[in-house]
Specification:
The chain is α/β, with parallel strands linked by helices. It contains 15 helices and eight strands. It has a single domain, classed as 3-Layer(aba) Sandwich (Rossmann fold). Helices cover 45% and strands 14% of the residues. Strands 1-2-4-3-5-6-7-8 form an eight-stranded mixed β-sheet, with helices on both faces.
């Protein structure tokens, strides 16, 4: 009997050590280059990473890119060069809790704070008084909706928005279907910290692959880059806090959907129709009904939740067609 307990102890102790602390993976050369080309600014004592590229000399237009959950500004890497050929300036932050930005624990993450961080970044860069184009995806769609609300209501610090392009985000809570693990984490209570700790590359890669199309699956290197961005600063430990945005979308639906229905600025959506999170035709039928003034680009049938990564050429062409139309 004693030998049995010794054997259990010999197995349990190292497993507990792994549970308590698993070192984050090293940055790949591509991800290291992305980090090295960006920089940081301080927002209320918090370090926020961002990219800021000078682009086309003949343009005076600025585009700000707002990424999705659970990834980072690196989501835009495949269309970055194309955007710099069209815009004078291309700016993309990592939201608080994401990518290379700070990831404080026991923090009440909110869409409102993320919108204020975008305002703070644009003030830091000296462009807050300039008109900008917003290009958003997923979580970033909701941040863009809050920025649009502030612009509409002349709130202090507002961003002057020339156009808004959304893509595959939970604009309508009633047509959004979070993944099973997301539901567990956002409502897990005492279970959430355990789930955060148990999350690993295998579970992450299985989950994220489900929201890519069958012919547009990310490579293993791309999956590792996504996971490395999450694991930076132990970001896996704040997933449950970040996921409160799902509840915030429901709580503030009227505010954020109302911002879209009442806007007069050019509005567009680029949509991957195989998206299981915002499925077709349920999502798009409601979108067209509620926002008839918006123009729409629906990509090929096999494109899913990450259209800018799955079909960067189609995504970029759709976006530039929208911008050039006005």
């Amino acid at each position: 009997m004693r030998e049995w307990w010794i054997q259990v102890g010999l197995v349990t102790v190292p497993l507990l050590a792994v549970y308590l602390h698993v070192p984050p993976p090293k940055l790949s050369p591509a991800l290291q280059a992305w980090k090295s080309s960006g920089t940081f600014f301080m927002y209320e004592g918090l370090s926020i990473f961002y990219q800021d590229s000078q682009g086309a000399l003949g343009s005076s237009e600025i585009v700000v890119l707002l990424h999705g959950f659970p990834t980072s500004s690196y989501d835009w890497c495949k269309i970055w060069e194309g955007l710099t050929q069209r815009f004078q300036r291309v700016i993309a932050p990592d939201f608080l809790g994401f990518g290379f930005s700070d990831k404080p624990r026991s923090h009440r993450y909110s869409i409102f704070e993320q919108a204020s961080i975008v305002e703070g970044l644009l003030e830091h860069l000296g462009v807050r008084g300039h008109r900008i184009h917003l290009l958003a995806h997923d979580y970033g769609d909701t941040v863009a909706q809050e920025l649009l609300y502030r612009y509409k209501h002349n709130q202090t610090g507002r961003v002057l928005i020339s156009s808004l392009c959304l893509s595959n985000g939970g604009i309508f809570p009633e047509t959004t279907h979070p993944r099973f693990l997301q539901k567990l984490l956002k409502d897990g209570g005492l279970l959430s910290p355990v789930l955060n700790r148990l999350m690993n590359f295998f579970l992450f890669s299985r989950g994220i692959s489900e929201v890519f199309g069958p012919y547009t699956q990310p490579s293993e290197a791309e999956l590792w880059d996504m996971w490395t961005g999450i694991r930076a600063e132990d970001g896996n430990l704040v997933m449950d806090g970040l996921l409160q945005y799902i509840n915030q979308r429901k709580q503030h639906r009227d505010r954020w959907v109302g911002a879209l229905t009442s806007t007069a600025i050019p509005l567009h959506i680029i949509y991957g129709p195989l998206d299981p999170v915002n499925p077709h035709p349920e999502f798009m039928n409601l979108y067209r009904k509620v926002l008839p003034q918006s123009t729409v680009s629906i990509l090929d049938d096999h494109i899913s939740h990450y259209p800018q990564l799955e079909d960067p050429t189609g995504f970029l062409n759709a976006y530039l067609s929208f911008i050039n139309a006005f």
